[in-house]
Amino acid sequence: MSEHRVTLTWQHAGGEFTYKNFQRDHRWDFGNGAILNASAAPEFMGTKELVDPEQAYVASLASCHALTFLAICSMQGIAVETYTDKAVGFLDKADDGKPWLARVELHPVVTFNDQTALDESKLQKLHETAHQECFLARSVKTDIRVIH
Fold first, then answer.
1. Distance between CA atoms of 7 and 68, rounded to whole angstroms?
2. How far apart are CA 140 and CA 114, in angstroms?
3. Is residue 108 predicted with pLDDT exceeding 80?
4. 86 and 18, same domain (yes or no)
């Protein structure tokens, strides 16, 4: 259906190439002019001012859910004014002792225009449908919870 390409570039910054010394900073080039500097999470010797892969993963899941939710609302004639999500990803140890992003909690707050009145059950159904239809949520084994 479609391809989604990113070019990751990393270069040795000099000095000793050991686990504790190598530079974690790298660059993601999305091929459309958007370039993002990234690094490992600070807990893994990365640069705290840069986006880390775990944050990007959480952002991608939150973004996919939001865009799917907005698409569903637009197709149903439900006018959304704002959508904010303070998503959180939780790194945990798997059964084999290795870390994985085990859970992502989405915390969407949605406001609708003055003519739109949704009860809690309708809002819940919209989020459930968005979750079921989100391409990324369908692609991962991380437990993704929508808490609104």
1. 26
2. 36
3. yes
4. no
